Structure formats: structure tokens, C-alpha cells
């Protein structure tokens, strides 16, 4: 504190402090929230402490003219590290994990078949065991969507339908098309159904609205795609629906309504205020004044979620399976270690709800696919300066 007093004296005794003594705490003096993201290898552009940009306008999304960033980074990495192609391909371990998690869910439902649904024991099991297991199955389906469990397309689709069973609601075939569009058209309005709608921005742009969204986000992700961009049903859609309905009917007949409710409660908790559900918000919401559209998370919850936290790596190379995403990051540290990432999925949910600088508005959107960053006009030219 002696140095601080001396610095104050040097400023003429007006009480102005050099906040560098506090590791960049001037953001607090400006009324901003603490820096949320971290940088593994700080650079001159971003030291991991300061804010690279000002707060975003909470009344609208961030509109970009450039193309999504993963295509250009993928080309750059392939140019420098052509050996990355050796990491691509299917992962045989996935099918065995799916089989194990499905078995765990069915066994737990069987054991709870006589337990009252609103009892503490039932809800605790549905949250801790069921929420974690069904989140794992959500992300197994995500992995299988990229045809990374088997070499062939048909076996992958059948495995996804099997993984869908404990979730209780048929969705895996519908998810596949929407998710592939999410990769190809990241941030594109009317195509990328991962983006919040204008109605969500108008209705949920406050603490209570964000708490509601985070609690019931499973319903937003389930209903929004059909409202924004309806799909044409195929034979695979009908197969997914038929198998799921038959499974639910047999489950209800032989194990009872409470066992089926356990599976449905599990799916709800998996997409609600659950630590593993933090990835929904962590992946593509904007933070710290950055226009970065995708964020990774390298913490321990990746062990339960098919390394989905390696999300920049996944978007750059969707054909690299979950077991090899850490190797991809290690292969190209100059590309990934300088990108801000999230230190905690649990705190993501808390910060999303409470932080005034983050909300439904904190998403990047573009009309069309945009242009490569090297070809995009400058802001000064666009605004006529």
C-alpha cells in the first residue's frame, strides 16, 4: 500500500490510483464486471486481464459481416500442421460408453419405480445421476451426429436412436440436420437455430428472464428449431419417433409411470441448472467485450461430456472425435492457447444470469455467410468515416 500512497501523491493528491497495482482492477472502477474468460498464453493483443473491447449494446445482437472464423482457422492449421488429418476418423469407444450409460439409466429407473417422484431421493437421483447421464447421452448423440462412432452412416444413425431411448423424447434425427447447419452456417440468421430469436431478446433480457431461460433452456433448444426452420420429415424421422414411442410404452407398461418420469426428469435437469449444462451457454455466447463467437472450456467436466468443452477445436475440425480433441489442441498451441476460454461451466450459468454485460443479446449474428475477414471492409468505410 506504501507504493499506492506514493503514486497517489504523485497524482497531486487527487485520489487517482494507478490500477495496474491491482492487476487491471480499473474495470471495477469503471463499473464493469470482472474479466470472465482466461487466456492460456497471453499476448500483446490480449493479456487475459484487460477488456479487449467495450460492453456490447444490450438492445441488439452483435451483427458481423465477416464469415464464421472456423473455416479460415481450419485452413491455416492444415497449412502449418498437415498431420492433423491423422487425428480424424471414428472412435470405437463411443458405442461402449453409450451402452453403459443407457444401462445405468435403465437400472436407476428400475430401482426408483416405487419411489414418489417429488420425494427428495427421487429428485436427487434424477438431478445427480439422471441429469449427468442424459447430458452425456445428449453429447453422445452430438458426437454420433458427426458419424464418429462407426465408419458407416447407417450404424451411426441407429446408435443415435438407441442413445435417444433414456431421454424419453425422440429428437436425434431432427437434431442431426439442425446441428450440421449450425456448423456450416454459424451465426447465420434464419439458418443457425442455436441462435436466440428476436422475441427471446425482447422477453428475456433481464435477470429474471435469464434465470428462466437457464432453467428451461432444454425447451428453448427443443422448440426453437421447429419455429425458425421446419424440417421435411424422412423415413429416419419416423423410425426415431416409432422406436421411441414403443420404448416409452413398454417402459410404462412394465416399470410404471414413475420409472418413465425419472427419465423425463433426468432430461429436464440435464438441460437446466446443472453444471454440465453450462456448456450450452459457454459455447457461443459473447463475453468480455470480445467478438469471439466460440469458446472452449478445458476443465474436469469434459470427462463426463465427450470433451465438448474443446469447442473451438471441434468447430475447426468436426471430423476429429472426442478422444483426440486434446491432441488437436496440443498439436496447434499457437492457434488455441491464445484464444480466451472459460475456466468454469458452473460459474458460466451464474455469471450469465447476474452479469449485466451478458444476456440473450450476447450472440453474434450475420445475414448470409459473410466475407473472409481479410476481404471485409473496415468499420470506418462502412460507417462512411
From TrEMBL:
The annotated region (Disordered) lies at 32-57
Sphingolipid delta4-desaturase N-terminal domain residues are: 56-94
Q: In which pathway does it act?
A: Lipid metabolism; sphingolipid metabolism
Q: Which GO CC terms are listed, alphabetically?
A: membrane
Q: Which GO MF terms are attached to this record?
A: sphingolipid delta-4 desaturase activity
The entry's family comment says: Belongs to the fatty acid desaturase type 1 family. DEGS subfamily.
Cited function: Delta(4)-fatty-acid desaturase which introduces a double bond at the 4-position in the long-chain base (LCB) of ceramides.
* Name of this protein: Sphingolipid delta(4)-desaturase
Q: Which organism is it from?
A: Schizopora paradoxa
Amino acid at each position: 500500500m506504501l507504493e499506492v500512497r506514493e503514486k497517489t501523491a504523485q497524482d497531486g493528491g487527487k485520489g487517482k490510483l494507478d490500477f495496474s497495482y491491482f492487476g487491471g482492477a480499473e474495470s471495477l472502477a469503471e463499473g464493469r464486471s470482472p474479466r470472465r474468460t482466461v487466456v492460456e498464453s497471453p499476448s500483446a493483443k490480449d493479456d487475459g486481464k484487460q477488456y479487449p473491447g467495450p460492453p456490447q449494446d444490450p438492445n441488439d445482437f452483435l451483427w458481423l459481416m465477416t464469415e464464421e472464423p472456423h473455416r479460415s482457422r481450419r485452413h491455416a492449421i492444415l497449412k502449418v500442421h498437415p498431420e492433423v488429418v491423422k487425428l480424424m476418423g471414428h472412435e470405437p469407444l463411443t458405442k461402449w460408453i453409450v451402452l453403459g450409460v443407457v444401462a445405468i439409466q435403465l437400472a436407476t429407473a428400475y430401482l426408483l419405480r416405487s419411489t414418489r417422484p417429488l420425494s427428495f431421493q427421487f429428485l436427487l437421483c434424477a438431478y445427480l445421476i439422471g441429469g449427468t447421464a442424459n447430458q452425456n447421452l445428449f453429447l453422445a448423440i452430438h458426437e454420433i451426429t458427426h458419424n464418429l462412432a462407426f465408419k458407416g452412416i447407417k450404424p451411426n444413425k441407429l446408435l443415435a436412436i438407441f442413445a435417444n431411448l433414456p431421454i424419453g423424447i425422440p429428437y436425434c434425427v431432427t437434431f442431426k440436420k439442425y446441428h450440421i447447419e449450425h456448423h456450416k452456417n454459424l451465426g447465420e440468421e434464419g439458418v443457425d437455430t442455436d441462435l436466440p430469436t428476436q422475441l427471446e431478446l425482447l422477453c428475456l433480457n433481464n435477470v429474471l428472464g435469464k434465470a428462466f431461460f437457464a432453467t428451461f433452456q432444454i425447451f428453448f433448444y427443443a422448440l426453437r428449431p421447429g419455429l425458425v426452420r421446419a424440417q421435411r420429415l424422412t423415413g429416419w424421422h419416423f423410425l426415431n419417433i416409432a422406436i421411441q414411442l414403443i420404448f416409452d410404452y413398454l417402459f410404462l407398461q412394465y416399470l410404471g409411470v414413475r420409472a418413465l418420469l425419472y427419465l423425463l426428469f433426468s432430461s429436464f435437469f440435464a438441460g437446466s441448472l446443472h453444471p454440465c449444462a453450462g456448456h450450452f451457454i459457454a459455447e457461443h455466447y459473447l463475453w468480455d467485450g470480445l467478438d469471439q463467437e466460440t469458446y472452449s472450456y478445458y476443465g474436469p467436466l469434459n470427462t463426463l461430456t465427450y470433451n465438448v468443452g474443446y469447442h473451438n477445436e471441434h468447430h475447426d475440425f468436426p471430423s476429429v472425435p472426442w478422444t483426440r480433441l486434446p491432441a488437436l489442441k496440443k498439436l496447434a498451441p499457437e492457434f488455441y492457447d491464445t484464444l480466451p476460454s472459460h475456466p468454469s461451466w458452473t460459474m458460466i450459468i451464474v455469471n450469465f444470469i447476474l452479469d449485466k454485460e451478458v444476456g440473450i443479446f450476447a450472440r453474434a449474428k450475420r445475414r448470409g455467410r459473410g466475407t473472409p475477414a481479410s476481404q471485409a471492409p473496415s468499420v470506418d468505410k462502412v460507417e462512411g468515416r
